[in-house]
Zinc-type alcohol dehydrogenase-like protein
Amino acid sequence: MKAIALQKHLPIEHPESLIDIDLPKPQPAGRDLLVAIKAISVNPVDTKVRSANNPPPDEPRVLGWDASGIVEAVGPDVTFFKPGDKVFYAGDLTRPGSNSEFQLVDERIVGPMPASLSFEEAAALPLTAITAWEALFDRLKVAMPVSALPRRSILIIGAAGGVGSIGVQLAAKIAGLDVIATASRPKTEQWVRDLGARHVVNHQKDVVEQVRALGYRYVDYVLILNNTDQHFNAAAELILPQGMICTIVENKGELDVGLLKSKSAGFIWEFMFTRSMFQTPDMAQQNVLLTEIARLIDQGILRTTVQQVLSPIHAQTLRQAHAMIESGKTIGKIVLKDF
């Protein structure tokens, strides 16, 4: 089968940073689905793994943690799906990724593809939808829907990217929160407003000052999707006493969590691969939440976040997508379709 692989950790400009290879077609076992890949999307995690300062892998490594496709075969213990089903999923960081014609994936982290979407529209959603859903409802413990009056508020830092684009929708349309989104360009500001943000502030300026100018002394929740080191102090200043801050971005320096002590405020991480990486007892919750995302999409409540589609799926177009992600200027999601 065709695949795109990493053999050396190289800058994306290097022609060997990602290469086309042929691999044997895998066979499903246990609760595995064998999925014929129709479309994939690219996330910052792809670029981080590719560019990591690590020894080269012992054998070519296939990256990719977002896909849509058709179930071709199933393992003997599969109960959720059957051959011919259309599915979408983000996969497992510890297994070969979706940048290949066929992929094995545990059915517990797979969802039925939204019937109203094309493969490329569906491929834009899984990783970001899982991350945003888990961050809001599992980590921050946002009630769904929020019934308290006055309405609660959330500050989403870095709202125009992949996770933010679905997170704004979930927070505004499902949880009923007042969303204060950050964006730094007119195009991204309009994008997050269209998705449901009530207010937009510029994260390249003083965020605390801007949020306070909107009339919010504190916000109930903060979700950091960009540069935790830069934004942690502002989040600590703005978070409501007994509120919660969640981030998905690893820090490079020390974070002064002591700033949260007097407020009895909480700080927590969201990493959507935790359930699959550690085979947690609630691993199948990702099937549940992707099924709910598909329902909300098909009902027109949520929308796909794909902004650009490249074709075909091979090393050259995948390198192009990685370069676009690394530019830090992407809006929504970049998708590749058709091998």
In short: The longest strand covers residues 32-42. The domain at 129-269 is CATH 3.40.50.720 (Rossmann fold). The mean pLDDT is 95. The CA atoms of residues 13 and 319 lie 8 Å apart.
